[in-house]
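REQUEST FORM: STRUCTURE PREDICTION
Request ID: SP-0412
Submitted by: Lab K.M.
Chain count: 1
Length (residues): 840
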Amino acid sequence: MADEQQAGGPPERAAEKPAADPGSPGGDEKARDDRARGDEGKRDGDGGSAEGNDAEKEREKERERERERAAGRFKEYTRDPLAEEQGEDGAGATDLAAASRARRSTRMLFDTGRDLNSFDRSYIQSAHIGDIHLRMGAPRSGAGIRGGPVPNEELSRLRRVHVEPKGYLLLRNALSARRLLVLGAAPGTGRTSTALSLLDEVTTLAVDGNGARPESGSRVRRVDPDGGVRQLADSLGGEAGEKEPGTGYLLELSLTRPGALPPDAMDLDGLAAALDRCTSFAVIVVAVGSAANPLLTGRYGMLCPPAPTEELLTTRLEERLENHAAATPDGPGPAELLASAEELADRPEVRDAVGLTDLRPAEAELLASLLAGHLLGDVSYEELLAGCRSLAAGQAQEWFAGVDRALTAAPADAEGSAGRPGTAALFHPVAFRIALAVLGGASHSAVAAAAHLLTWELSVQSDPDNTPARPLFCDDPESDLALSRAELTDGRVEVAGTEVPGRLIWYRGPALPAAVLTEIWERHFPVRAPVVRWLRLLADDPRPQVWMRAAVAAGELSVRDFDHGYAELIRPLAEAATPRRRVFAATTMDQAAGHASHRKAVCKLVDDWSRYGTKSLRWTAAMALGYGNAAATTDDTLDALARIGVRDDGEQLAVASFNVVRLLALPDSAQVLRRMAGWTHHKREEYQDLGLVTTVRLALTRVDEVLDDEPGSPLGDRGDWPLPLALAATRPELVGPMADLMWTALNTPRSKDVAMDALESLLRSAVRKDGAEWTRPGLAALLPALATAEHDRRRLDWLLRRMMNDPENPLPDAQARSLWWLAVPPRDRTGEMDEEETHG
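STATUS: Completed
RESULT:
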């Protein structure tokens, strides 16, 4: 505590007795009242008068009422600031703890700055590496490919580099036996290469049983997809005698276009019969999804697993490096070059730039070319990393480019509604990818529900004159995972402060969330309006795993265009009536402040709100300051919080004190405690209240309500501990300042009741209900510093007695005795046996 007590401040730690008058810190007014009463007694004589006694009794009653009013006001200051206006609709302390954990989980997806280092295609759109031409843009699968024979050169290269997926032998046996195979997989996973490889093998064996391959003439043909299954079957049936036996046909069907229908079972049976008559084979390639389910669950349908990433990359690297080794016999051999390339690919910086758990064939080919080019001196290290970042960006561009082109090109029906029958089915896959980028790590049900909300918003934006259909039984979780490169994991979901088992969903690659957000925000401007409406809906979701993740994602979007994000998301939500929306806005600003390019702007904005903003804006500014990024220094942060807390007779003292406590979980907590001590001894009562309320709130706050995502924090494994006990156990240098502050609150009349209740809650956390160890190490550090004088121990003795005699939750005698021994060191127990014996 300070060496000198300022006028009107709470009592000093060296005092031997608590202050007595709740109307003023430190009991100064009581001393003046006592002197005044003494003077009156002298004037009125020793006996006094009946009238004087009545006046004295009235004054005493008035002082008692003032004490009650002061204690009531102080108790009101310590209320939960996150549920102050909307009752149960507010985000209470339990929700905030869950929201803090959701924020830490979500920020991990955006902590590399990958969003601001996204691949710039104008910088390295294409490159030559030796005799290899690289294109960095998103692939256009099937673009420009119509019917016709597959060149022998393509088949020859396919035989060299194709990596067989798991279950390849089963696929080949099924095609050989049935002559028709419907192969389902996500686009880009190598399904077409696998289909060509299957057809190449079975047609060769059909012509020459000993496996000899003809020198010329391609026996594999692509079929024009516009004709479909019936046209292929008709061509085989009408010219069966003229068809060369043993031909393989590849047909890639697109079932995502509006009005597209899959072939039925009779069509497939007819094609299989026609193929059998001319001893030929066919593979129909389809994308997994609800439209393709009837095909894939029929007798001809099978799923095509993706090729293993490691083998895929190794094969591509070998192809690139063998040619160079052959051309330079004096240089390193293929094996040595391959080892160097694999070591380069395993560097953390390169892996982080790639940001994908699994590589698809085209991605493996690009990465192999980049690695080989760097080893051969044709690609710089910066170009290598830029090219690696282009993988996720290219996938995002492929997912969203021209999604509704077929829909907008379709002529509108005269009646207005029949021209757009499939908007919901068309937009659901892209809505699911956006929802997964925003809510990655949440439960699968939460992401699916959010995706349906966004599907509705996209459909309405696309066709505002018609109410879009909402299919109820079209979800296909397996297809959603495959089409969005996602995975389900077993985890825990928080429900009303309790963890329950749940299925969590993530992208298979940390680069994909930022890539998806960048793609929709920077390349598809019309999508912003429905996404903003959707994010506002998520801000009202009562589940912390939803609204907090959405707030972090909104911050990432705002970084990409802060003017738009401020106008459409931050400012409207910062002035909202509900606390949850204002916390959403504060979190969005903090996420933007985490980027060096935007921190100065956010700090200026929050400072202006703290000085000149409306009540709602000041409240939001306080929540943003609590994260520790919305001001240049810790002193600036505390100045702004004090400015908010003392204004308008402490109207926002609750939210200001709460966010001061949040700063104590950050590394600079010693400076925060020093400022709190300064407030408690300030000459102005509103600053004293700020210091006292913050002290009491500190004792009532759990670690997981305020813990930030500071890596390696010693508080991380003490989430359910009271914050002061966790700090006392991990940072001994803070014990003295915290004990001084708590002593002051206990000895200041207007705060002593709530401070005593807070101390009781700390004592009850020593052991868990099942008897397991809990916060005892923290109490062992804090209690001796809090009970250094005789009257402090008498107060502790009284409190332990009260806890032991509590009719609803009595404290066991053994625990009370143990707590007493923690507070009173052995060297100080001499002469205090009476107190010890009261506890057994």
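NOTES: Residues 164-303 form a domain with the Rossmann fold fold (CATH 3.40.50).
Reviewed by: T.R.
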